[in-house]
Amino acid sequence: MKIMFYLGAFFALLSIENVNAAPSEDEILRMFIPSDISLVKDGGKYSFQSDQAVPFYTFDDDDPGVSNCLDVCAETWWPVRAKRVDARAEGPWTLIERDDGRPQWAYKGQPIYYYLHDKAGTKAGDGIDGKWHVLKP
């Protein structure tokens, strides 16, 4: 009977500690991520990617909340669009309106893109022209 009492008290204390525990770094980073965007940790570093493991990029020539990758640029660097009709901005994620009126995801105001020549697990666009960078938190 005493063993059951001590086990019960032990598990009660564990549950109290978990309620008051601070969220981990992973939990904090994942709090406001839209459902069609994934956060991955590779070699101790985080980056964002699609659910097909294709990385996202930012473009140095963009202005906050404005995509300057248009026309020919957008044929190689595809805007990341919300997959869900009910997608909404939350935390550092926003939806900006492109020149064609369609929404594009932005992270901390920076529009984000796919690179045409990337495949799952590659980062072929990182550093191109010194202006394209893998999106990191």
Task: Describe this protein's structure.
The structure is a single chain. The protein has helices at about 1-20, 25-30, 70-75, and strands spanning about 40, 45-50, 55-60, 75-80, 95, 105, 110, 115, 130-135. It is of the alpha+beta class. It has one domain (about 25-135). The strands form four sheets. It has a three-stranded antiparallel beta sheet with strand order 5-6-7, with no helix packed on it. The longest helix has 19 residues, at about 1-20. The protein is globular. The chain starts with a helix and ends with a strand. Mean pLDDT is about 80; it is low at about 1-20.
Total of helices? 3
Strand order of the largest sheet: 5-6-7
Sheet with most strands: 3 strands, antiparallel
> How much β-strand is present in the residues?
15-25%
Main features:
single chain; alpha+beta; disordered N terminus; 137 residues; two-stranded antiparallel ribbon; three-stranded antiparallel beta sheet; globular
Give the SSE layout.
Elements: H1 2-20, H2 25-30, E1 38-42, E2 45-49, E3 57-59, H3 72-76, E4 77-79, E5 93-97, E6 103-107, E7 110-111, E8 113-115, E9 132-134
Antiparallel strand pairs: 1-2, 3-9, 4-8, 5-6, 6-7
Summarize the structure.
By secondary structure, this protein is α+β, with helices and mostly antiparallel strands. It has 3 helices and 9 strands, in the order ααβββαββββββ.
